[in-house]
């Protein structure tokens, strides 16, 4: 059964008098528990596609069905609710809230879901990513790898059905990148989450069940892993 | 519904890290709120004190005043105590220094004041004075002017009296009144011997009464009012005095609150601008929260809660400062106060100030804060992509509307008149708007026209004015508006003084002798001729009243429908008129003609002052019957004149033609011109010694008095303007701190590529020089406009540009900005290059 179905997805921007097509008639599907990588050169439309699939933006035409719901028919607040219930994010530049501690950063999605065990669950997740001794540290007191691990713990906190990762190792050195990569796949497997990741790194892409290649906003090929 | 629990929790967490910076942002409102609370508190205390000290204000339960001798035997029998004060303007001569000055002589009989007392130095002065005989109490300012001490003598008319005390305070009189007409109290039994009260002397006879506690004063007034009106007797009671004083001080305190409110608004512009920087820094976090599924209203709530808390903190801090500040205010306003003002915390003022502070800082903060609503979660993926950024939000216009409504509401609450409210709000919007446009225009112009050939430090300094997160607009608005207030003040003060001094520059009269009896005219003219002084005008003056206008007596007039009635003041007024067939230099005929009176039996055509006629609905051809010392005289209005009342001259509401009043009892005024102050002093002393009943006004005395009064007023306004300037300084300091990290990074970068310390200091100094001079320049332009409008429409004087005081204000404000900026840049320059590169 599909958790994500993208149908004729097109995104255009207006730049002065010119209309710029960033994504052009993209179609693909992802099954529950599957892993998918989106690869392609810079400016090819990978991140735009990720944003549309996660409900961060709205397509100019076409449809995104996330867990059976058509995102394009929703208001921003409805999409926000969907993101909170179904989606987890991992970003290239970690995107932690600078004014919150590591523990609080992980607690936020749980608190939004009004989970009474928010603190315990967050602590458990931080322990899983190896940061049990960094709970009260603020992001600027953590290294890049540690920040990304907090970000991973936060992404899994609301037990998402689907996890979106945008160049999750892009800002890390090779060794730390590899560690983070392993962590994402390990947790993904444990939690049975669907993973969609955008990357330049073909080695990382190769670890997913399927890859799609985007160039100039068009889907070039779907590679089944 | 907003999830307030979560929003409060997040706000609390966020405050731990950002609270310090928010306090900095909110600090801009502290001075404004302090001023607002201090002034409101002071107003409340003043109003209470006027209520409590109302009896001391009048000094009696009832006062009855008329400009002719009158007795009230019936009231005297009912009163416990009575006193009589005969007061009039007269020259008082100080033999020790051989100089004289126009004062208000008050000849006192009885134990007035019945409530309160004369405060004298030495304290025994009052008791000594009450012993009667040739003793006088003299206002302390007057004694200081002539270096007189207790024990010296003064000559009032023909009588020489000993000064037994320096008057510190007279019931119901304030410092300004003392400046204009310093009082000299003499016993009433010396009045006749002084020879000062003669025909034509402008004398007030004030009877003071004290009644038994249970006496029904209201009933007495109700019974007698009509008769008093008929007899042109003015009555004042404790209640009416309280209301009059209360009303005028309510106006003063409302004016001060408005000035303080401007300081609050200036602070809020600073807050808005600082929150704008804060919000810009918060946008990535907002985008993350949006990604995590938080609704925009919850995110707005997170930051709004913080702003409310900090606004409350800033307002409470301001209110506390204001509560202390009010201890200073009685000193600042001492010259204007008729009562002793107590210093107490007015909780009404504290609550109002705090509420105003929170509300207005939230409103101003909302403008940038609302941007948060439109943050797209895509910013997390594309932080630098402008298309992922902010959209337009119609709610911002609603907030702007709410701000305008608040200003309107607040000013209406104080001014109670819609037209004044609209003028004030219009002025505020115009001033802010023009400074805002100036700032935007300058930034745009620099961006467009900054020449590449300009030397590097100047170019860099100029381009810093439009760097991201710049505070140019808010600094220009706050410092500019503070400058505008101070500039306008100096401008108007100089214009008014110049208007008077101007008389000295041309061949204008500068000395005026009045209260001259008919039999003294020739002798005085001879003295003036002997001294080589010209007689520029000889003006006979006849006093009279109006009996009928177009056949309607005062009683007839009162019976008319209200909209058809003339003001009763025309019937009550004592007119001092002159007679001549020509206009003088200060007059201009605006309609009709001056029709001479040729022979007995001719109709008499008078000329009326245009404004007075208009106010009293008198038209050309109207019949006016004057009562000239008991004799009715029928006249017709033949012309209207526009009169410049500000020149040293005799000016009249009504001018009769020649010949009509030749035989009427009259007194005279002679006007001359002296060449210098010494000549003025010599002739003044000579005249006062020889003709003690004659009073003298000279230009230097008017200038001196005006300078004194304007000095006192300007001190108060400068004190209030100080809050605006302080607010500007706080905004400047907070903006310097906000941009500190950015400036450090810029400086490090410049140092890395080889810029020396001197170049960096030069860039910083030049940036503040530009900022300070633009703000001061903008403020000065505004002050020129304000001064022009005030000169033209309020003071009705010709406008002249005055560069001197404006240049001083410009240099001082610019210097202040440069110094503050420079101090800040010194710490920036201390930052270590490697620390920044690592961070």
List keywords for this structure.
heterodimer, A: about 220 residues, alpha/beta, six-stranded mixed sheet, four-stranded antiparallel sheet, globular, B: about 850 residues, alpha+beta, six-stranded mixed beta barrel, six-stranded mixed barrel, about 55% helix, about 15% strand
Question: How would you describe this protein?
Answer:
The complex is a heterodimer of chains A (225) and B (839). In chain A, the strands form two sheets. In chain A, strands 6-7-8-3-9-10 form a six-stranded mixed sheet. Chain A has a four-stranded antiparallel sheet with strand order 2-1-4-5, with helices on one face. Chain A has 225 residues and is α/β, with parallel strands linked by helices. In chain A, helix 3 (102-112) crosses helix 4 (118-128), helix 3 packs parallel to helix 5 and helix 4 (118-128) packs across helix 5 (144-157). Chain A is built from seven helices and ten strands. In chain A, a hairpin with a 2-residue loop joins strand 9 and strand 10. The model of chain A has no long low-confidence stretch (mean pLDDT 89). With 839 residues, chain B is an alpha+beta fold. Chain B has 27 helices and 20 strands. Chain B is elongated and about 100 Å long. Classes of the chains: A alpha/beta (225), B alpha+beta (839). The interface between A and B is medium-sized, with 33 and 29 residues.
The DSSP helix count of chain B reads 27
Structural class of chain A: alpha/beta
Q: Give the topology string of chain A: H per helix, E per strand.
A: EEEHEEHEHHHEHEHEE
Mean pLDDT across all amino acids of chain A? 89
Global outline of chain A: globular
Number of strands of chain A: 10
- Beta-strand residue percentage of chain A: 25-35%
Strand content of chain B: 15-25%
Distance between the termini of chain B: 41 Å
Report the average pLDDT across residues of chain B. 82
Please mark out the parts of chain B with pLDDT under 50 across 5 or more consecutive residues, or reply none: none
> What characterizes the major β-sheet of chain A?
6 strands, mixed
Cα-based radius of gyration of chain B, to the nearest Å: 34 Å
């Amino acid at each position: 059964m599909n958790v994500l179905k993208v149908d004729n997805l097109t995104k255009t921007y207006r730049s002065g008098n010119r209309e710029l097509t960033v994504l052009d008639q993209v179609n693909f599907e992802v099954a529950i528990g599957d892993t998918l990588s989106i690869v392609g050169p810079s400016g090819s439309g990978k991140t735009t596609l990720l944003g549309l699939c996660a409900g961060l933006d709205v397509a100019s035409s076409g449809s995104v069905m996330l867990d059976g719901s058509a995102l394009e028919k929703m208001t921003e607040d409805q999409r926000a609710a969907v993101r909170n219930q179904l989606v987890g994010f991992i970003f290239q530049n970690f995107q932690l809230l600078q004014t919150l501690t590591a523990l609080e950063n992980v607690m936020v999605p749980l608190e939004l879901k009004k989970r009474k065990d928010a603190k315990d669950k967050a602590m458990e997740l931080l322990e899983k990513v190896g940061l049990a001794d960094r709970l009260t540290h603020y992001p600027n007191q953590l290294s890049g790898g540690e920040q990304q691990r907090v970000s991973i713990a936060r992404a899994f906190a609301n037990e998402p059905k689907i996890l979106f990762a945008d160049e999750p190792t892009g800002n890390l050195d090779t060794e730390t990148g590899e560690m983070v990569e392993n962590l994402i796949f390990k947790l993904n497997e444990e939690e049975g989450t669907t993973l969609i990741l955008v990357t330049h790194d073909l080695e990382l892409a190769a670890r997913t069940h399927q890859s799609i290649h985007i160039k100039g906003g068009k889907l070039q090929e779907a590679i089944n892993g | 519904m907003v999830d307030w629990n979560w929003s409060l929790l997040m706000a609390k967490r966020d405050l731990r890290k950002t609270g310090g910076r928010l306090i900095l942002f909110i600090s801009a409102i502290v001075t404004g709120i302090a001023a607002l609370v201090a002034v409101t508190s002071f107003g409340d205390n003043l109003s209470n004190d006027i209520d409590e000290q109302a009896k001391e204000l009048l000094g009696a339960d009832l006062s009855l005043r008329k400009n002719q001798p009158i007795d009230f035997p019936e009231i005297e029998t009912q009163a416990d105590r009575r006193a009589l004060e005969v007061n009039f303007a007269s020259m008082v001569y100080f033999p020790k220094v051989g100089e004289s000055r126009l004062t208000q002589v008050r000849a006192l009989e009885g134990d007035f004041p019945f409530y309160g007392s004369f405060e004298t130095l030495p304290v025994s002065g009052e008791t000594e004075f009450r012993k009667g005989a040739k003793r006088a109490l003299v206002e302390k300012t007057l004694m200081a002017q002539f270096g007189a001490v207790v024990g010296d003598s003064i000559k009032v008319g023909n009588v020489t009296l000993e000064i037994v005390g320096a008057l510190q305070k007279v019931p119901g009189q304030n410092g300004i009144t003392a400046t204009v007409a310093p009082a000299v109290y003499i016993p009433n039994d010396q009045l006749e011997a002084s020879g000062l009260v003669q025909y034509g002397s402008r004398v007030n006879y004030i009877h003071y009464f004290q009644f038994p506690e249970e006496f029904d004063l209201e009933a007495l007034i109700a019974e007698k009012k009509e008769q008093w009106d008929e007899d042109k007797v003015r009555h004042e009671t404790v209640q009416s005095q309280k209301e009059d004083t209360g009303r005028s001080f309510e106006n003063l305190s409302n004016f001060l609150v408005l000035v303080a409110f401007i300081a609050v608004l200036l602070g809020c512009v600073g807050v808005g601008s600082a929150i704008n920087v804060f919000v810009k820094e918060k946008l990535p976090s907002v985008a993350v929260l949006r990604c995590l599924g938080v609704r925009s209203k919850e995110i707005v709530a997170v930051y709004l809660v913080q702003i409310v808390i900090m606004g409350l903190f800033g307002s409470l801090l301001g209110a506390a400062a204001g509560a202390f500040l009010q201890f200073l205010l009685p000193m600042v306003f001492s010259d204007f106060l008729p009562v002793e003002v107590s210093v107490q915390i007015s909780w009404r003022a504290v609550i109002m100030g705090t509420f105003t502070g929170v509300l207005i800082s939230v409103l101003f903060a909302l403008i940038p804060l609302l941007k948060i609503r439109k943050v797209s979660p895509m910013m997390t993926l594309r932080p630098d992509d402008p298309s992922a950024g902010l959209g337009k939000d119609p709610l911002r216009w609603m907030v702007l509307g709410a701000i305008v409504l608040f200003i309107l509401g607040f000013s209406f609450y104080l001014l109670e008149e819609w037209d004044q409210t609209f003028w004030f709000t219009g002025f505020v919007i115009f001033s802010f708007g023009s400074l805002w446009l100036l700032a935007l225009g300058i930034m745009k112009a620099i961006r467009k026209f900054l020449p590449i050939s300009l030397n590097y430090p100047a170019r860099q300094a100029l381009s810093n004015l439009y760097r991201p997160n710049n505070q140019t607009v808010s600094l220009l608005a706050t410092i500019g508006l503070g400058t505008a207030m101070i500039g306008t003040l100096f401008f108007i003060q100089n214009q008014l003084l110049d208007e008077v001094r101007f008389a000295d520059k041309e061949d204008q009269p500068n000395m005026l002798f009045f209260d001259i009896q008919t039999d003294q005219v020739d002798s005085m003219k001879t003295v003036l001729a002997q001294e080589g002084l010209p007689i520029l005008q000889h003006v006979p003056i006849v006093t009279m009243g109006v009996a009928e206008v177009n056949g309607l007596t005062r009683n007839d007039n009162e019976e008319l429908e209200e909209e058809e009635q003339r003001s009763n003041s025309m019937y009550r007024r004592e007119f001092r008129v002159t007679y001549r067939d020509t206009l003088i230099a200060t007059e201009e005929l605006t309609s009709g003609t001056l029709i001479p009176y040729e022979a007995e039996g001719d109709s008499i055509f008078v000329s009326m002052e245009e404004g007075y006629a208009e106010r009293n609905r008198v038209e050309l051809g109207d019949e006016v019957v004057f009562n000239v010392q008991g004799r009715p005289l029928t006249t017709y209005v033949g012309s209207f004149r526009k009169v410049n009342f500000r020149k040293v001259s005799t000016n009249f509401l009504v001018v009769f033609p020649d010949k009509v009043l030749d035989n009427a009892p009259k007194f005279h005024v002679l006007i001359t011109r002296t060449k210098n102050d010494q000549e003025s002093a010599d002739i003044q002393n000579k005249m006062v010694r020889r003709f003690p009943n004659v009073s003298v006004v000279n230009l230097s005395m008017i200038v001196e008095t005006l300078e004194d009064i304007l000095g006192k007023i300007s001190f108060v306004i400068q004190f209030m303007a100080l809050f605006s300037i302080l607010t500007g300084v706080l905004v400047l300091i907070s903006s310097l701190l906000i941009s500190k990290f950015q400036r450090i990074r810029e400086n490090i970068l410049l140092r890395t590529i080889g810029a020396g310390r001197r170049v960096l200091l030069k860039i910083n100094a030049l940036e503040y020089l530009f900022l300070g001079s633009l703000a001061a320049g903008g403020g000065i332009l505004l002050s020129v406009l304000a001064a022009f409008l005030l000169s033209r429409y309020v003071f009705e004087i010709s406008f002249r540009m005055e560069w001197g005081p404006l240049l001083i204000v410009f240099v001082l404000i610019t210097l202040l900005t440069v110094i503050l900026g420079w101090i800040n840049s010194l710490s920036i320059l201390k930052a270590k290059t490697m620390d920044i590169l690592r961070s």
